[in-house]
TrEMBL record:
<dbReference type="InterPro" id="IPR020936">
    <property type="entry name" value="TrhO"/>
</dbReference>
<keyword id="KW-0560">Oxidoreductase</keyword>
<protein>
    <recommendedName>
        <fullName>tRNA uridine(34) hydroxylase</fullName>
        <ecNumber>1.14.-.-</ecNumber>
    </recommendedName>
</protein>
<dbReference type="InterPro" id="IPR036873">
    <property type="entry name" value="Rhodanese-like_dom_sf"/>
</dbReference>
<dbReference type="InterPro" id="IPR001763">
    <property type="entry name" value="Rhodanese-like_dom"/>
</dbReference>
<dbReference type="InterPro" id="IPR040503">
    <property type="entry name" value="TRHO_N"/>
</dbReference>
<dbReference type="Pfam" id="PF00581">
    <property type="entry name" value="Rhodanese"/>
</dbReference>
<comment type="similarity">
    <text>Belongs to the TrhO family.</text>
</comment>
<dbReference type="Pfam" id="PF17773">
    <property type="entry name" value="UPF0176_N"/>
</dbReference>
<comment type="function">
    <text>Catalyzes oxygen-dependent 5-hydroxyuridine (ho5U) modification at position 34 in tRNAs.</text>
</comment>
<feature type="domain" description="Rhodanese">
    <location>
        <begin position="135"/>
        <end position="229"/>
    </location>
</feature>
<feature type="compositionally biased region" description="Basic and acidic residues">
    <location>
        <begin position="325"/>
        <end position="339"/>
    </location>
</feature>
<feature type="region of interest" description="Disordered">
    <location>
        <begin position="313"/>
        <end position="339"/>
    </location>
</feature>
<keyword id="KW-0819">tRNA processing</keyword>
Length: 339
């Protein structure tokens, strides 16, 4: 099996990263990390917490490579991110509107102190070994992602916890899994981070053998040929690409701009779907539709002008126009004083 499937060179490089690491200085690191990224026009979201780092960013190849070098070999982190789980892909357009570095209590929120990946996690399973594991009859396969993610695609035979947020996963375990019955549990998520905590949590609850897909669905789609794949559909990603498929190519899914629910081609064929305004998942929420309709109107007008409406590009344009107006006003005052 190839190390990775070939990807078409595209203008933007996307880096997804996470690492559970001891970062008691996360608050001090935040502005330094933000400054480094913004100086190179890198965009996306990185989460810092005392337990580590998590996030996805994009930029030019040179910018993202510089960030990777700074994270892994720079003095700020001092080698604490060595061995981080990192996945690279590409994008036709910049998939993020702005750069955000956020401080949070956890890099993935479960609110279960007993789940500590720094102390114990399940058994990592490489992507190329995943098929043989999940095809076993004595293995319970669980998708740890939320319902809207599962709706776009999942592994065959996987159980769907139908959670709205990861914090609900604890309730699912208590109600549907039993360590006395479910001797072998295999789990997966988008990039691997949720499974780190989920596997640690299951071990704390007395489950004996817990497995999780190393690198998550993204790694699986990167290295497993489509004709050997057990993954059906597309994988939801948290950026403007919305979803990716085998080889990490951009998928067909879009977002409802009113409720942010991912939409398949069938969803967009619904009578309740209005581009940029509404979909079948938020059909009864008129207040969201009004705001979305106005937003779509402004985006369409900005597009006609060839200008950005959202994100850092819009902020830069607004700042430039403001500076131009100030300069014009100052020039006018100078002319008046001369007269």
């Amino acid at each position: 099996m190839n190390a990775n499937l070939p990807q078409t060179p595209l203008p933007y490089k996307v880096m997804a990263i996470y690492k559970f690491a001891d970062l008691p200085d996360a608050e001090a690191i935040q502005p330094v990390l933000a400054k480094f990224c913004c100086a190179r026009d890198i965009r996306g979201t990185l989460i810092l917490a005392p337990e580590g780092i998590n996030g996805t960013v994009a930029g030019t190849v040179e910018a993202v490579d510089a960030l990777a070098g700074w994270l892994f070999a720079g003095e700020v982190f001092g080698g604490r991110l060595a061995g981080a789980e990192v996945k690279y892909s590409t994008a036709i357009e910049m998939p993020f509107l702005r750069m955000k570095v956020r401080l949070k209590p956890e890099i993935v929120t479960l609110r279960a102190p007993e789940a500590n990946p720094a102390k114990s996690v399940g058994t990592y399973v490489e992507a190329q070994d995943w098929n043989s594991l999940i095809e076993r009859n004595d293995v319970v396969l669980v998708d740890t992602r939320n319902d809207y993610e599962v709706g776009l695609g999942t592994f065959q035979r996987a159980l769907d916890p139908a959670t709205k947020s990861f914090t609900e996963f604890k309730d699912y375990v208590a109600e549907h899994l039993d360590p006395a019955r479910d001797k072998k549990v295999a789990m997966f998520c988008t990039g691997g981070i949720r499974c780190e905590k989920a596997s640690s949590y299951l071990l704390s609850q007395g489950f004996e053998e817990v497995f999780h897909l190393k690198g998550g669905i993204l790694k699986y789609l990167e290295v497993v040929p489509e004709n050997e794949s057990r993954f059906a559909g597309e994988c939801f990603v948290f950026d403007e690409r919305v979803s990716v498929g085998h080889g990490l190519v951009e998928g067909d899914a879009t977002l409802c701009r009113a409720c942010r629910h991912p939409l398949t081609a069938d969803d967009r064929a619904s009578a309740d779907y209005v581009d940029g305004v509404s979909c079948a998942y938020c059909v009864g929420e008129a207040d969201k539709h009004a705001a979305a309709a106005e937003r779509q109107k402004q985006m369409d007008l900005a597009k006609l002008r060839g200008a950005a409406h959202l994100g850092d590009d819009a902020a830069k344009l607004a700042s430039r126009r403001k500076a131009e107006k100030r300069a014009q006003a100052e020039a006018s005052r100078e002319r008046n004083r001369a007269d």
